[in-house]
Amino acid sequence: MAVRRAVASILALGCGAAAREAAPDTELVVAHFKEDLSWAAMWNTSGVRLRVYTKGDVPASIAAERLPNVGRESHTYLSHIVNNYDSLAKWTVFTQGAAPTWG
Prior knowledge:
Keywords: Signal. This protein is α/β, with parallel strands linked by helices and about 100 residues long.
């Protein structure tokens, strides 16, 4: 589970202080299409805001914001930055919808 430790280390960098209401210290932004998101729930903690954007069907298991199915994950990441520019987290981790793997 080296991947979990690596992701946890990255997310922990921004979790030192209590999360602010307007902008959390750490945010995990997931670009989803049709992947299984069961892995993402473990990061939905008090120190990390989980933000899922989907260009496919909205998953029943997790809150997600719908985006038009244009571009790729970089479109999702840029949309997040542009639409939340004034309230971005101190640390933002961008990832695709599939569970992180190592190697």
